[in-house]
Amino acid sequence: MAGVGEPLTRVLLSDQVYTRVRGLIVNGDLKAGDRLVEAEIARDLGVSQAPVREAVKRLVHEGLADHIPRRGSFVADVSSQDADAARAVRVIIEEFAARAVAERADPESVDALRAKVQDMREAAEAGDIGRFRDADIAFHRILCEASANPFLSRIWSLMEPSLRALRVVSDPMFTGDWAEMAVQHGVLLETLESADADRAAAAFAAHARGDEGVLGHGHGHDHGHG
Predict the structure, then answer these.
(1) Rg (CA), the chain
(2) How far apart are alpha carbons 13 and 45 in whole angstroms?
(3) What is the dihedral sign for C-alpha 91, 19, 146, 217?
(4) Per-residue b/e over 103-119, b at no fewer than 16 CB within 10 Å?
(5) 3-state secondary structure 174-223
(6) Chain-centre distance of CA 87, in angstroms?
(7) How far, in Å, are 14, 92, 100 from residue 19 at the CA level?
(8) Cα(91)–Cα(209) distance, integer angstroms
(9) Residue 62, by phi and psi: left (phi above 0), alpha (psi -120 to 50) or beta?
(10) Are 167 and 224 in contact (CB under 8 A)?
């Protein structure tokens, strides 16, 4: 497989295979529908098929790949209907979570959110799309966890694999301004710190919908970017 890189030599091979292949998916080098051929990946990385098999299972569990019996595993493809359905639910979840957090934001959660915004800024500066997307989705996961409502966290955990697939598959090569995306998340954090629950709820709901012009951006945030 082109672009996989140098053979792996250290232990925990399945973790390394997972990280390598996941990076190719997240960065858009592997496209929706591409087949993950275990024998080919194993050969390119200089490992046996066993760690590759485990890595692919993890990718399927995470929602980045689909396994089709008797055909194999493929980079996840998401229909526009699935995207619309996930987005509609996400708007409700994030609006509810933002309201709860703004009403009683604890310093530890705010610090965790701020750290993810900083990760996004650094990733944008380095052009590291994979790191940016990981920090981005972690920001929204922390929001749900900070709501102190265990059901919100549970719902998010059920949705996250699909959201990861949506962000990677629906628009894997986003051509907008990643630095501006990081700034927008900083603005979202400010709405939480303002203790204005209505403002925070409206901002996060609009952000999840991908409303153009919201928080000073206009790239349609609904195309797979959290």
Answers:
(1) 18
(2) 10
(3) negative
(4) eebeeebbebbeebbeb
(5) CCCCHHHHHHHHHHHHHHHHCCCHHHHHHHHHHHHHCCCCHHHCCCCCCC
(6) 13
(7) 8, 32, 35
(8) 6
(9) alpha
(10) yes
Q: What length is written for the chain?
A: 226
More confident residue, 204 or 158: 204
User: pLDDT of 191-215, one tens digit each?
Assistant: 999 989 999 999 999 998 877 455 5
For residue 222, is pLDDT > 60?
no
Burial class (CB in 10 A: 0-12, 13-18, 19+), 10: exposed
For residue 175, which of 103, 111, 106, 223 has the smallest C-alpha distance?
223
**Cβ pair 97, 147 in contact under 8 A:** yes
Global pTM reads 0.68
| Helical ranges in 8-79 per DSSP H | 13-26, 38-45, 49-62
Helix axes 13-26, 129-146, angle to 10 degrees: 100
What DSSP string describes 135-176? HHHHHHHHHHHHTT-HHHHHHHHHHHHHHHHHHHHSSTT--S
Residue type, 94: E
